[in-house]
Amino acid sequence: VKKKASRYEKQASNVTQAAVLGAGIMGGGIAYQSASKGTPILMKDIKEEALELGLKEARKLFAKQVERGKLDTGEMAERLSNIRPTLSYGDFGHVDLVVEAVVENPKVKDAVLTEVEEMVGEDTILTSNTSTISINRLAQNLKRPENFCGMHFFNPVHRMPLVEVIRGEKTSDAAVGATVAYARAMGKTPIVVNDCPGFLVNRVLFPYFGGFSLLIEHGADFQRVDKVMERFGWPMGPAYLLDVVGMDTAVHANEVMAEGFPERMAREDKTAIQVMADNDRLGQKNGKGFYAYE
Ligand code: NAD
Known about the structure:
Layout: E1 18-21, H1 25-36, E2 41-44, H2 48-67, H3 73-80, E3 83-86, E4 97-100, H4 106-117, E5 125-128, H5 135-139, E6 148-152, E7 162-167, H6 173-185, E8 189-194, H7 201-217, H8 222-232, H9 238-245, H10 247-260, H11 262-265, H12 272-278
Parallel strand pairs: 1-2, 1-4, 2-3, 4-5, 5-6, 7-8
Antiparallel strand pairs: 6-7
Helix pairs in contact: 1-2, 2-3, 10-12
The structure holds nicotinamide-adenine-dinucleotide.
The site of nicotinamide-adenine-dinucleotide has 29 residues, from helix 1, helix 4 and helix 10.
């Protein structure tokens, strides 16, 4: 793990047009962040409703900036117009960097990444916002793996400063450099990490979620656990954080971690998190998780 991306410190971002695939929690956040810092971004999804939701979220965040006096309404309209929602790859020929942020499923990601590679120019950098899936694994089917790396944002994107830039075995220095520079242009703090399931942050976070799951399976009260962890000094407890992440996303991510580190992460029985997901308690995304949301 290289703690600093200092090798790339001086490089300015050459990304004048970005694109994000998926307009969900993360895709919508990435589009907002890019647009708000002045880089136009295409936001592609397969569902019209997802595009509408993504835009609605971005509008809400810009409106908050206006309320706080940080933007006027003209600036808000201008920044919002940096996000172009689309259901097609029509304009992808002019994109400098793509962030894939579709569901955390290796098969879906493989299909989407090989598809988009055909739609972009030869020099376009492809990145994945995967939480856990190995970048080398996702690079396997690509024609230009040297142009591919991980660009892992955290949720909520507009508030979390860190971005993990994950270097695969075949990733070129140029691709890492361009991704680091774009993350900086988005106002983020990039770190360059080597490839493994879960990278750095989720290798720490998912065993913690596993520990929390066991605690409540053994009878602990999740609200009390949250309160204790807040007292411990963390900004939020594990139950609330799982509601933010999304139970389905956490389950998919945990499966990948369990495959990569079976001795530490695999469970034969269902975790409490899996049971929550099975009962459609997905968290903030559908209004009910450990807590209820309006
Ligand atoms: P989400 O379920 O909110 O959104 C996924 C979106 O992808 C949906 O809108 C869906 O319609 C769209 N989609 C599916 N197939 C598509 C395709 N072929 N082309 C375009 N769009 C498609 O999921 P999310 O929480 O935003 O997660 C997205 C990615 O980000 C996952 O890889 C996840 O692991 C990662 N991630 C999530 C979090 C988190 O806290 N939720 C944090 C960091 C990274």
